[in-house]
């Protein structure tokens, strides 16, 4: 797999400039998603908003990459994660999580989930929790100098996870067995753990280990 070591070679000022350009666009669309779910304006205003948004979409589509973001051969490892639905600087679906890396390899993030992530009324959708944990466990694997595809992800939903409350995700690797890296993690609210996860991340046949 290419891209892994490119992370180190990307010019930081170029990354900062791109983040300053695309970050506000993404944040604006993120706010729009929440607005679209919760709006109670009258039908004329909905029709007006729909027309305006169609125009915005065609403005952005005037020049586009071919295919998905991470599939671009010229795009570096750092930029590729910008399309992530969990941390993506360019993905309005991402909450986003801002990940913190500890020297001992633990990875964690504080975040909140709003109306766009609802499962049961006023609670986080279980699939969204799985998405977040898959990513955070995968990051802990990556931080340990390995990488791999998610082979198995096991979740235990211990308590409902609330919307619009401070949440935290944590992950760390447990052990490495050949091509398999075992990682554990959780999502917590103010009262403690709501979801526990364990995952097996596997370096696919034919791929070299990261380091
Ligand atoms: C992820 C790429 C990272 C790129 C790095 C760049 C930067 C990263 C930065 C930041 C982290 C990002 C974080 C992202 C997080 C999201 C990750 C995802 O969403 S991944 C998409 C969902 N997962 C799939 O689509 C897998 C589909 N499955 C496969 O591709 C294969 O089945 C694979 C690779 C899992 C295994 O295939 P084989 O052919 O290489 O492996 P065989 O030779 O069959 O088995 C090897 C060993 O693993 C066990 N094994 C095989 N499959 C297993 C499984 N599903 N679960 C558990 N064990 C399994 C076997 O029993 C065997 O064990 P024995 O060596 O005998 O002890």
From TrEMBL:
Question: Which superkingdom is the protein from?
Answer: Bacteria
Q: Name one GO biological process term.
A: fatty acid metabolic process
* Phosphoprotein as UniProt keyword: no
Q: Which residues form the Thioesterase domain?
A: 124-194
Which SUPFAM superfamilies does this UniProt record tie to the protein? Thioesterase/thiol ester dehydrase-isomerase
Q: Name the membrane topology term.
A: Peripheral membrane protein
Q: What is its EC number?
A: 3.1.2.2
Tell me if Lipid metabolism is a UniProt keyword of this record: yes
> InterPro entries in the record, alphabetically?
HotDog_dom_sf, THEM4/THEM5_acyl-CoA_thioest, Thioestr_dom
Q: Give the location in the cell.
A: Cell projection, Ruffle membrane; Cytoplasm; Membrane
Keyword set for this entry?
Apoptosis, Cell membrane, Cell projection, Cytoplasm, Fatty acid metabolism, Hydrolase, Lipid metabolism, Membrane, Transit peptide
Q: What is one GO cellular-component annotation here? A: cytoplasm
List the catalysed reactions: octanoyl-CoA + H2O = octanoate + CoA + H(+); (9Z)-octadecenoyl-CoA + H2O = (9Z)-octadecenoate + CoA + H(+); (5Z,8Z,11Z,14Z)-eicosatetraenoyl-CoA + H2O = (5Z,8Z,11Z,14Z)-eicosatetraenoate + CoA + H(+); hexadecanoyl-CoA + H2O = hexadecanoate + CoA + H(+)
The family database entries (CDD domains) matched by this protein are listed as:
PaaI_thioesterase
Picking any one GO molecular function of the record gives: hydrolase activity
- Major site of localization recorded for this protein: membrane
Q: Which family does it belong to?
A: Belongs to the THEM4/THEM5 thioesterase family.
Name this polypeptide is given: Acyl-coenzyme A thioesterase THEM4
Species name for this entry?
A: Nocardioides immobilis
């Amino acid at each position: 797999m290419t891209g892994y070591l490119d992370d180190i070679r990307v010019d930081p000022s170029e990354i900062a400039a791109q983040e300053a350009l695309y970050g506000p666009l993404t944040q604006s669309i993120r706010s729009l998603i929440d607005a679209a779910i919760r709006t109670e304006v009258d039908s004329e205003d909905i029709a007006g908003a729909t027309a305006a948004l169609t125009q915005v979409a065609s403005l952005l589509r005037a020049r586009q990459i071919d295919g998905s973001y991470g599939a671009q051969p010229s795009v570096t490892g750092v930029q590729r994660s910008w399309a992530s639905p969990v941390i993506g600087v360019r993905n309005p679906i991402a909450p986003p999580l801002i990940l913190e890396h500890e020297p001992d390899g633990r990875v964690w993030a504080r975040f909140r989930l709003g109306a766009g992530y609802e499962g049961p009324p006023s609670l986080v959708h279980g699939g969204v929790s799985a998405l977040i944990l898959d990513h955070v466990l995968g990051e802990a694997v990556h931080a340990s100098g390995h990488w791999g595809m998610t082979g198995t992800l096991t979740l235990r939903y211990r308590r409902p996870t609330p919307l619009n409350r401070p949440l935290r995700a944590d992950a760390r690797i447990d052990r490495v067995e050949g091509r398999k890296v075992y990682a554990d993690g959780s999502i917590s609210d103010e009262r403690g753990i709501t979801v526990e996860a364990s995952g097996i991340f596997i370096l696919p046949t034919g791929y070299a280990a990261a380091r």
